[in-house]
Amino acid sequence: MLEQLTPRVYHLRFSQTKDRPSLGYIRGDRFSLMVDAGNSPAHVQEFQAAVDEAGFRRPDLVALTHSHWDHCFGLSALDIPSIACVQTRQSLEMVSKLQWTPDELEKNAEKGIVPRLCVPRIRAHFPQLETIRVALPTLTFSESMTLDLGNCTCVLQHVTSPHARDTMIVWVKEERMVFLGDAVYQELVDDVWTERPEKLRKLVQELLPLDFTVCQPAHQRAMTKEELLTWFARRIQRAEEI
Ligand SMILES: [Zn+2]
Question: 164: CA distance to ligand 1 center in Å?
Fold first, then answer.
């Protein structure tokens, strides 16, 4: 079921147990935008069923917050144009060249191309690894891109993030709402979640000027801007104490 976050913004809730990030649905008067393409075609189907159940039109476009598998491996099941920042396109081009077999996955984990932590998760969602299809985004931008969905403006903006270099957020201006993707999280380095206080500080500087009251990180409940900034400040302080 879609959960409503603001008058025009909905999402299919994240699931920690299923490695599923929140999938956004932004309802303009003329077009609808999906945020992130899910971890598998099954995830996309669940999203589409929720959109149908709500009586809404299927999304016309999808925006990818970054290239990680749980946000992109559903893309091949969507027949709509997709939008990503240049860095996400580059990363997905690399991922699309990988071979998806048990042996190759093992080798890629060995080389550090695929995080070891993700291997059992990917295998759980794709018992037949060979069925993985990595689709590439249709449209790319470098700094930011504005979409007018019909009385609903979405600004897709590349931001600095401790999590990944290819991170964009979706700011739904009139709704004063932001989809943060994984921008708020730490970076996975050799299977260890690693804090990047410098990048986190930059992210704070980039988010501060945006007018929003509610934000949705991909793997946890929505929070207010104030809660987000308090959480960041605590993390920066803790990292500096070490
Ligand atoms: Zn991620």
Answer: 7
